[in-house]
Amino acid sequence: VFFGEMAEAAPESIAMPTESSDGSWCLIESDPGVFTELIRGFGVTGAQVEEIWTLDADAFHHLEPIHGLIFLFKWVQDDQPAGRIVNDRKDIFFTRQVITNACATQALLSLLLNLRHSDIDLGETLNGFKKFCQDLDPISRGLCLSNEEKIRTVHNSFARPVLFEMEMRQSVPDDDIYHFVGYMPINGHLYELDGMQQGPIELAEIGQGKNWLDVVRPIIEARMQRYSVGEIHFNLMALVSDRQRSYERQIQLLVHQPSLLTPEERHSEIANLRTYVKFEQEKKRRYRQENLRRRHNYLPFIIELLKQLGETGQLMPIYEKAKLRAMQCEAAAVLKFRQER
Description:
Blueprint: E1 7-8, H1 32-42, E2 47-52, H2 57-61, E3 66-74, E4 84-85, H3 103-112, H4 123-133, H5 138-146, H6 149-156, E5 177-186, E6 189-193, E7 201-205, H7 212-225, E8 235-241, H8 243-256, H9 263-295, H10 299-311, H11 315-340
Helix pairs in contact: 1-9, 8-9
């Protein structure tokens, strides 16, 4: 599972809007707390994101209902889609990616804007965006997204504070580039929603009475196996209904509705559900704290620390030690590469 920020694949075949200091989009960390706060920032209620650590069926089923999956993987040039690209589906809201670094938000929006579930309300911003863009082509929708101030502001709220403005280095072929895509069921078929593609990718038909998660799991597993042996830079997250709300609804049903459970069983089940509610509340509190730390500007502290180390004569020995260690790691990596060849 991959954590942290990553260089994202940039759309090449579309004329991109000019990026400036007030119009660019930042890199987004692949983390459920970050994505859940993005959802809240967009004005969506009743949804959250959970991380999935394994492709075992149990890891999926205990989170149901799962409305869609967000998959992070190492992007490969000229990688062929695993299914048929469809451009004639009016029931799928598809948007091309025309913005560098926006694929995290784009993957999340691809799921939300195609979602119809009683648990989830998209809110004013996303409902308004969808209504405005409904009759536009995918590229025009992507251009509209690039100019959607509210969505961009929420996305860029996770930009890291910077002390110095540095010229961005151009990517080279050996750079690791990562990309987010979405998977979700739409009207009996499984689709991959990737803004870098020409349209939605139809992957499979979901048989009547079959759980779509049982269809998508082997597809994701096969995609992971296409990469080189030892590649572990993957991340899988699920878009689910707000779990705290779900537990609270179950408590209300047990309290106010007739039940086949005995009084003792009912009290025990209510106690368990209240424990789950507390767990979700604590998780949300932890997410808020982690996101505050992500946004905090630690650079003044770092600069002051370096000054103090320099004044006490400790900085250069630390630097030389780190430099030696970096050279040793580089030499070990080169040796390993030659042995594998």
